[in-house]
Amino acid sequence: MIRKIAVVGAGTMGHGIAEVAALSGFEVALIDVSWDFLNRAKERITDSLNKLAEKKQINDPNAVLQKIEFNTSYDIAKDADFAIEAVPEKLELKKTVFKTLDSVMGSHAILATNTSSIPISDIAEATGRKQKVIGMHFFNPPVIMKLVEVIPSKYTDQDTVDKTVELAKKMNKIPVSLKYEIPGFVSNRIFIRLLQEACREVEDKEATIEEVDSTARNKLKLPMGLFELADYVGLDVVVDIWNVLTTRGTPDVKCSMFKAKVEEKNLGVKSGKGFYAYPAPGKYAKVQLPDSSKVDPSRLISLAVNEASWMVENGIVSAKDVDTVMIYGFNFPKGLMEMADEVGLDNILRNLEDIYSKGYQAYKPTNLIKSLVSEGKTGKNKGEGFHKY
Ligand code: 3HC
Fold first, then answer.
1. Is residue 51 in contact with ligand 1, taking CB distance under 6 Å?
2. Which protein residue's CA is at the shortest distance from atom 39 of ligand 1?
3. Is residue 203 annotated as part of the catalytic site, yes or no?
4. Which ranges carry the 3-hydroxyacyl-CoA dehydrogenase NAD binding domain (predicted)?
5. Quick one: which of 53, 60, 130, 178 is 20 to 30 A from 351 by CA?
6. Domain edge (last residue) among 112, 142, 177
7. Considering its fold, how many domains does the chain have in total?
8. 328 pocket-lining for ligand 1 (C-beta < 6 Å)
């Protein structure tokens, strides 16, 4: 039975995860290396709880806050039953955190990582309980986004997977479990593919940044434009995930804009400037975009749909799971596969073949897309595509 949760790292994700845990009734131990970070986390949690109270979603913000103990010492994690690590994406740092958690926490405790890019098996190897180490991937902002990806490493046992899924549900989240770990999981593989096509269109001078984002927001009805979302997530985080995918075998799409922004230290919302300018560092405000745009939505999602169909073809997740990930992890108004079925898989295939013919290897259409199109299952208006209608 899980009663107390330790969260290590009180930054953007960690403070939100601690808040979610407290909101769902757990005792929480929030640990970070300095009181500056912890005090900042306390302020952010208080602001967020006050917002929820204003909207009458909770009655007593203070009672929720009281459930969280803040400290720089791991002593407060001693009696916790589950840990969630959300420190910066550095393997050596994560290994140190896991070694420490392994030494202070009871042998029954599960140790989860919120990493979006580091192999979970590598982190598990720092502990003496590799079978009890798992990926539990939340989305920003954790209080709002409903999805949690559950990722077993090559060592994780089924009991750990089951308990993590159960915990995610108790935290009022919607879990999607991957069959096995792949770099970037489902969410970030799709996210990076969307950004790669967005970047290719701009760098190949097919469209401007604002036109791409206008189609994303106004035609696909996404909550943010793609460059806007990259700014929101943090361009350094995006580049880290991008590098992990390409160094671990995913065919790259050459794009220099993202790396250049990071080199200029324009990291997006967190630094106040990225592809767009924001009111202040850390303060997000919706960006201004043109109402209409020539960017074709089926072209913009084509590479992401190809990636998703590769995951379906390889049995990692179902088409329905892909849709759950995009709806609850990114607030898409509908799933990516459903969007593909709406724009027509024949259109997706045509765009993939066109871009592939320009020399971009990553756009090589999967057998799944090719066979669906050749069988006439091109989407909603034919009654079948990735889904049946
Ligand atoms: N605490 C409490 N409430 C919050 C909040 C917080 N931290 N942040 C936002 N809210 C509430 C607001 O109060 C508002 O409530 P209301 O509608 O009742 O007034 C509501 O959420 C919407 O917020 P805003 O009005 O400030 O702004 P928007 O309407 O633009 O919504 C957004 C903001 C929810 C972030 C929306 O733009 C969105 O869904 N964007 C997509 C986010 C996304 O895709 N995240 C995933 C990123 S990828 C990732 O995290 C994985 C990693 O590995 C990279």
1. yes
2. 331
3. no
4. 4-179
5. 178
6. 177
7. 2
8. no
Catalytic member of 114, 116, 298, 351: 116
pLDDT attached to residue 313: 96
**Omega before 365 within 30 of 0, i.e. cis:** no
Which of 15, 137, 293, 307 is labelled catalytic?
Answer: 137
* Same domain, yes or no: 327 and 289: yes
For 277, the 3-state DSSP assignment is: strand
Residue 12 beta carbon below 6 angstroms from any ligand 1 atom: no
Domain with residue 331: its CATH number is 1.10.1040.50
Q: Give 249's pLDDT tier (boundaries 50, 70, 90).
A: confident
Task: Please check whether residues 238 and 158 belong to one and the same domain.
Answer: no
Same domain as 381, residue 315: yes
What pLDDT digit, counting tens, does each position of 320-353 carry? 999 999 999 999 999 999 999 999 999 999 999 9
Q: How far apart are CA 88 and CA 94, in angstroms?
A: 8
Q: Which residue out of 188, 214, 293, 302 is catalytically annotated? A: 188
Q: What percentage of the chain reaches a pLDDT higher than 70?
A: 100
CA distances to 65, 158, 181, 317, 346 from 24, in Å: 12, 24, 28, 28, 45
Q: Is 149 tagged catalytic?
A: yes
Asked if residue 368 belongs to a domain, the reply is: yes
Domain range enclosing 15: 4-177
CB 336 within 8 A of CB 301: yes
Residue with tokens 């709806």: 327
Measured from the CB, is residue 186 less than 6 Å from ligand 1? no
Whether 137 is catalytic: yes
Quick check: is 188 catalytic? yes
pLDDT of 72 over the 90 cut: yes
